[in-house]
Amino acid sequence: MYKEAKDFIELMYDELGKDKQEMTRRLEQIYAEIQKTGTYWHTSEELTYGAKVAWRNSNRCIGRAHWNGLNVVDARDITNESTFIHSIEDHIVQATNNGKIKPYITIYHSDHPPRIYNNQLIRYAGYDDCGDPMEREVTQLAEHLGWQGPHTDFDVLPLIYQMPGDKVKYHDYPSEIIKEVPITHPHYPKLQDLNLRWYAVPIISSMDLKIGGITYPSAPFNGWYMVTEIGVRNFTDSYRYNLLEQVARAFELDDLKNTSFNKDRPLIELNYAVYHSFRAHGVSMVDHLTAAKQFETFERNEHKRERDVTGKWSWLAPPLSPTLTRNYHHGYSNEMRDPNFHYKKKSHSGCPIHSS
Ligand code: ARG
């Protein structure tokens, strides 16, 4: 742990141009604390900078140009249940910011945090016959705890959590804090009949944040959506909402054989609809071409500071017109650097009922 702490502290003092003597004193302090307690406590400056660098190092993320603008909430002292729920709802409200989305992270205690069972704080339930198939396991857990949704395609799941030493519980959010956008297309009124909608803010709550050898298992974080995440992946992936055929029909494209190119055509218009619906409702969203441009700026800024950019090509190339972006045309090293966000090992993230 000390080795990882030292790497991080050196990086931070170096990048922020901080006093090297102070750094030596801080390292001695951390060393002694680890000797005595087996761990150490980040200062709020370390926590804040560590979370920002974790975003900067997230190889799958195309939005990293904004890494230094992350708002970090230190919630390490929260042990009370209602304070915890309030802090989660406050994250949702502050990050939503009436539609002008702000990147936020709320970080709970590293060793005995409230546990969050949701993949994202806001997500739609998945049932055998409707909803988001990706969320079936979480939905079953919610139902096992006594939750019952109205059984539509877009039931907002409750928060599923566990305070240290307590049992797993659920909490329904007040509906007025969950901003959602109905999807319409100005030139194809039939799209409206599908009653598609999506929530405004993607807040990932299933990853570990690791800074300087310390793992924070509960640290929900968000940016804003890139249009294709919803318009290509969530709506049309065959193992998600699988809506390609229905959307094509709404656009009067009935012949879906490969050589009619009518599988490709609706994707463009659906993404146009998602983007303009979000904007019409005053909700931040970035299109894939602008996001890729911003990523180029990020790469340039990093190179100026003599840092090289790691990345996962298959995630950085957007799933719509990828060849129109520069990052399609070159490779990236997918080396993982800490601070970073890590997927949980399955045994820690699975359903508490069905895992044995
Ligand atoms: N792809 C995920 C979703 O569709 C969200 C991942 C995070 N995305 C983001 N723009 N910060 O819900």
UniProtKB/TrEMBL annotation:
Keywords assigned: Heme, Iron, Metal-binding, Oxidoreductase
Binding site for heme: 61
Reaction catalyzed: 3 reduced [flavodoxin] + 2 L-arginine + 4 O2 = 3 oxidized [flavodoxin] + 2 L-citrulline + 2 nitric oxide + 4 H2O + 5 H(+)
Enzyme Commission number, as recorded: 1.14.14.47
Biological role stated in the UniProt entry: Catalyzes the production of nitric oxide.
Residue ranges of every copy of the Nitric oxide synthase (NOS) domain listed in the record: 2-347
Sequence similarity: Belongs to the NOS family. Bacterial NOS oxygenase subfamily.
Assembly mode: Homodimer.
Enzyme class: oxidoreductase
Note: This protein is similar to the oxygenase domain of eukaryotic nitric oxide synthases but lacks the reductase domain which, in eukaryotes, is responsible for transfer of electrons to the ferric heme during nitric oxide synthesis.
Names of the cofactor(s): (6S)-5,6,7,8-tetrahydrofolate; heme
A Gene Ontology biological process term: nitric oxide biosynthetic process
Protein's name according to its UniProt entry: Nitric oxide synthase oxygenase
